[in-house]
Specification:
The complex is a heterodimer of chains A (289) and B (632).
Chain A (H helix, E strand, L loop, with lengths): L2 H32 L9 H11 L3 E2 L4 H20 L4 H21 L3 H32 L4 H5 L5 H4 L1 H14 L27 H26 L6 H22 L5 H26 L1
Helix pairs in contact in A: 1-3, 1-9, 1-10, 2-9, 3-4, 3-9, 4-5, 5-8, 5-11, 8-9, 8-11, 9-10
Chain B lengths: L1 H19 L3 H26 L5 E3 L4 H24 L3 H19 L1 H4 L6 E3 L1 H31 L7 H20 L3 H19 L5 H31 L4 H9 L5 H14 L7 H5 L5 H9 L3 H15 L3 H22 L4 H22 L2 H32 L10 H4 L1 H15 L4 H16 L2 H26 L14 H37 L9 H21 L6 E2 L7 E2 L5 E3 L5 E3 L8 H4 L1 H27 L1
Antiparallel strand pairs in B: 1-2, 4-5, 5-6
Helix pairs in contact in B: 1-2, 1-7, 2-6, 3-4, 3-8, 4-9, 6-7, 6-13, 6-17, 6-22, 7-8, 8-9, 9-11, 11-14, 11-15, 11-25, 13-17, 14-16, 14-17, 15-16, 15-21, 15-25, 16-17, 16-20, 16-21, 17-19, 17-20, 17-22, 19-21, 19-22, 20-21, 22-23
The chains are: A mainly alpha (289), B mainly alpha (632).
């Protein structure tokens, strides 16, 4: 492992939760403004996080904390693989493993609301997984490698070859970032939630772990967006970061313009997007190559 | 070479002995001793030929050919008779076409062809021998206890266990024959023996359903057998009956598409690919060890073995396109259909069909990277699927149901079994375990093949796979209060086998880089002379092993430990304290039951099968129409 790889991993470990938390704070502020409210301070997610740590330590069984901890560990490992320039498929498979731990944590409680949340989370995974894999395959086809280190140092700018896949990815990003209309399993909008969805049986420190895991997760999800815009040109990272921020803003806008939709629409829409935008884009690359 | 004979003949002798011995004690001892002997002999064989790049044995003996022909004729007469007796005339018709055709061929054209090497052993054979010799015998060991329970549950029926164990060992013998035969006529002979063994095993309980399903399996496999006979005849007219010469000629550019397509068709029927998947689904009426055997180390593995063997001559021709399309469609539709099933054995069966589809598709692509994935899939699938079937068998005998919905709280009732099942299920689809590693390689091979439709099939099929395994995993991991532990009643033979398979599931994931380096890659080098870059770089393989260590260590260190106060779960009304019922708004107690999602409207079994069967039939018909059109 080279020094730069170690630096990237350490930077990710330290900076990702800070950036992720700030992003969540900005998200809440912008959402509030869109809804005509003043909104909480930008640092509110951090205040919430520390408050959760202070809560009374209770749980519904002896095992769910273990699963949630595994969720955090593997989310962090996924991020490390990503920022160390690892294999894109490895990143996706590790992310799947992490997500499965969260679902299992909810299942393990054997609680009605948590289980509905868990089934819905699974459904969401089934909905977005094809598009995520197609994204990786798209990058592989234009760069000849799944390695993120080679994708970022390629002369080709992904978006020029993968516009359809980019749109498809942004579409399923709505699910991954847990934004309406596809925030079926857990939502930040209390009024449309089934009790507390997937997280019904989590509390205190366990909730804090889930929060921080999501901050870690959101950062490398935006990293995927970054990959589409980066190439050897020196200005491209600036452009890529800007696009990431714009994408996140658009997700907030979508979040606040839609109510939660039925699960059928989530899976239909995601798969149709994968088949149209994803498949057609792949076809074009195959035949243009 | 004597070890090869021993592996074919010894199980045969054991089978005959078990057929005549009626006492439990004698059977127990013979099964256990011979299981150990067969496993040791397989390992010995692996060590003996490990270093050789592939060895051929002439072993010329005219009388063996006549003996095989004689047995074939007897078996054909038996099938003909049974078909008439049970009014399954199609089986009789197929037997009446196939056997005379074969006899005619052997006496006329076949007689004039000099077969140089009848037997061979290469690294792929070694892998298959190890799978059959270790997994197969473990299943027979497990059957000892299971069949006692089975007889106990069906005490109104005559004790047919001698027949059962006879068939199990005969099956192993025939499988050893398949993986070491270079003479296609011999291969065909063993191939038909496995067809008949599975026919009798599926019909074991002699219920109406069992008989119908066994004939369905028989008819479909005889159809494949007919394809095999035709392939032999076409090849015979070209002048060879040897597998290695077929591969050599094909790779040198001779047009062998028609015979190869016919052989691949035989493989497709045996590997239960659509449109023939229904025989494997029907096979679950048999006692569970039968399913475990059919799904993991025998029968279907013979089908994929043949296709993987043919992979070098499938690459880039119409036969290859047929094989990869059928495999791809089967993978996708069977994965979808599995979502709609709540019967554990049906979920496992659809998952087998799907994974075989993946292997078949890899074989059809035929590049060295695809074959690497296919071989790895065969290994991992054999271990993991036998574990899962046997777990379901044990669960069924102890909780009285094989429905996943009835496995609620299994973690409390049978913690050890639930833990084994969790390992098995995770092994089927999660990183860093075996099936995912192979699926990863398969995906890369699909992408490199340039077939975008196939890529879409694996992408969507994988997502469905994730869904149906995880919802089962959820049932396994759910903690329900106040469950009585009932696992004391399980036979110790069953525990031994389940424990070994669980350990193997994990260990083969740890040592798979070694298997790749010392078995699979040398095989590929021998076949393809050059091996392209593998899907998984060495670095990624080490990362996988490292992740596995984390996944194993974390639960050992931290699982089930908490110093938090345990509180009841949230329910829509006041929890009555047992986490299973609550007080509703009318102050009445209401009990809670949780069910999984089956999404019948999306993934209904009938619909998926219909689509799969129609498309694959069209692909097969189209291919053979073109191939025959080219010949005529």
């Amino acid at each position: 492992m080279s020094v730069t790889v170690i630096i990237s991993i350490v930077a990710y470990l330290i900076l990702a939760p800070i950036a992720g938390g700030l992003l969540a704070g900005i998200d809440r502020k912008i959402s509030a403004r869109m809804q005509g409210r003043f909104g909480p301070p930008i640092l509110q997610p951090f205040y919430d996080f520390f408050k959760l740590l202070e809560k009374e330590p209770i749980t519904v069984n002896k095992v769910q904390d273990f699963y949630v901890m595994c969720f955090l560990i593997f989310i962090v490992i996924t991020g490390c693989f990503f920022f160390a320039g690892g294999d894109l498929l490895l990143v996706i498979f590790t992310l799947t493993l992490a997500s499965i731990f969260l679902v299992i944590a909810a299942f393990s409680s054997n609680s009605p609301y948590a289980q509905i949340g868990a089934e819905r989370e699974l459904l969401q995974m089934m909905a977005y997984e094809p598009m995520v894999l197609i994204t990786a395959i798209g990058f592989y086809l234009i760069n000849g490698s799944f390695a993120i280190s080679e994708i970022v140092s390629s002369e080709k700018m992904g978006i020029l070859y993968l516009p359809g896949i980019f749109l498809g990815f942004v579409f399923i990003l709505t699910i991954k970032l847990r934004k309406s209309p596809f925030d079926l399993s857990m939502s930040h909008h209390g009024h449309q939630e089934l009790v507390k969805g997937l997280t019904t049986e989590f509390s205190g420190k366990t909730m804090a772990v889930i929060e921080i895991a999501h901050w870690y997760e959101n950062i490398f999800l935006l990293g995927f967006v970054y990959l589409f815009f980066v190439n050897t040109a020196s200005w491209s990272p600036v452009l890529a970061v800007a696009v990431c921020l714009v994408t996140y803003f658009i997700e907030i806008l979508i979040d606040n313009s839609y109510a939660r939709m039925k699960w059928q629409i989530a899976i239909n829409a995601s798969w149709i997007v994968a088949i149209t935008l994803g498949f057609v884009n792949l076809l074009v690359i195959y035949y243009v190559r | 070479m004597s070890t090869i004979f021993f592996l074919i003949l010894f199980p045969l002798v054991v089978a005959l002995a078990l057929l005549v011995l009626k006492t439990d004690a004698a059977r127990d001892i013979i099964v256990k001793v011979s299981a150990i002997v067969i496993a040791v002999a397989s390992i010995y064989l692996a060590f003996t030929y490990f270093g050789s790049g592939g060895k051929f044995f002439d072993f010329e003996n005219e009388s063996i050919n006549y003996l095989m022909m004689g047995i074939e004729i007897c078996l054909a007469i038996l099938i003909f008779y049974l078909g008439i007796k049970h009014k399954k005339y199609l089986a009789s018709v197929l037997a009446a076409i196939q056997a005379p055709l074969m006899v005619w061929f052997e006496l006329s054209i076949g007689h004039g062809i000099h077969v140089v090497n009848n037997l061979y052993i290469d690294r792929l054979s070694i892998i298959m021998v190890l799978i059959i010799g270790i997994i197969g015998t473990l299943i027979t060991w497990y059957s000892i206890g299971y069949m006692k329970d089975f007889q106990h549950h069906h005490h109104d029926q005559p004790d047919r266990r001698p027949l059962f164990f006879f068939l199990m060992f005969l099956f192993l013998s025939a499988m050893f024959g398949i993986v070491v035969s270079n003479n296609l006529v011999w291969l065909y002979f063993f191939w038909e023996i496995t067809t008949l063994c599975s026919f009798f095993l599926i019909g074991f309980t002699r219920t109406k359903e069992a008989i119908n399903n066994s004939f369905r399996a028989l008819i479909m496999n005889l159809l494949g057998g007919l394809g095999f006979v035709l392939a032999i005849i076409v090849l015979g007219t070209m002048g060879t009956l040897e597998l290695n010469q077929l591969l050599l000629a094909g790779m040198m550019g001779y047009d062998l598409t028609l015979p190869v397509a016919l052989l691949a068709f035989a493989g497709i029927t045996k590997a239960a690919q659509m449109p023939f998947n229904s025989w494997l689904l029907g096979a679950m009426v048999a006692p569970t060890p039968t399913s475990a055997l059919l799904h993991s180390s025998t029968m279907v593995k013979a089908g994929v073995f043949l296709i993987v063997k043919l992979a070098p001559v499938l690459s880039g021709n119409l036969a290859g396109i047929m094989v990869m399309t059928v495999g791809g469609i089967t993978f996708l539709m069977a994965s979808f259909a599995a979502i709609s099933q709540s019967n554990a054995k049906r979920v496992l069966a659809y998952s087998t069909v799907a994974n075989l589809g993946l292997i078949v598709a890899c074989g059809g692509i035929g590049t060295s990277a695809a074959v690497w994935a296919a071989v790895m899939l065969i290994i991992f699938h054999a271990v993991t699927k036998s574990l899962l079937f046997l777990c379901v068998g044990t669960a069924e005998h102890n909780i009285g149901s094989r429905d996943i919905e009835d496995m609620d709280g299994l973690f409390g009732r049978m913690p050890k079994l639930a833990a084994f099942m969790i390992v098995g299920i995770s092994g089927m689809f999660l990183a860093p375990l075996g099936m995912l590693i192979s699926k990863w390689a398969a995906m890369k091979a699909f992408v490199d093949s340039g077939n975008v439709l196939l890529v879409m099939m694996i992408v969507f099929g994988s997502s469905a796979t994730l869904f149906y395994w995880t919802k089962w995993l959820g049932k396994m991991t759910a903690i329900m209060a106040k469950q009585e532990n009932i696992q004391g009643k399980v036979h110790k033979e069953e525990w031994l086998v389940l424990t070994s398979l669980t350990v193997m599931t994990v260990v083969i994931c740890l040592i798979f880089p070694l298997m790749s380096t010392y078995l699979v890659v040398p095989y590929l080098t021998a076949v393809y002379s050059t091996v392209g870059t593998l899907a998984l770089s060495a670095g990624n393989m080490y990362i996988m092993s490292g992740m596995l260590a984390i996944v194993v260590l974390l639960p050992l260190l931290f699982y089930g430990k908490t110093n938090k106060r345990i509180v009841p779960i949230y329910m829509a009304g006041a929890n009555l304290g047992d986490d299973l019922s609550f007080e509703n708004s009318m102050h009445q107690p209401t009990s809670v039951s949780l069910k999984n999602w089956y999404m019948e409207g999306y993934f209904g079994e009938k619909k998926m099968n219909l689509i799969g069967v129609l498309t694959t039939t069209a692909v097969l018909l189209f291919t053979f129409a073109v191939l025959l059109g080219g010949v005529l």
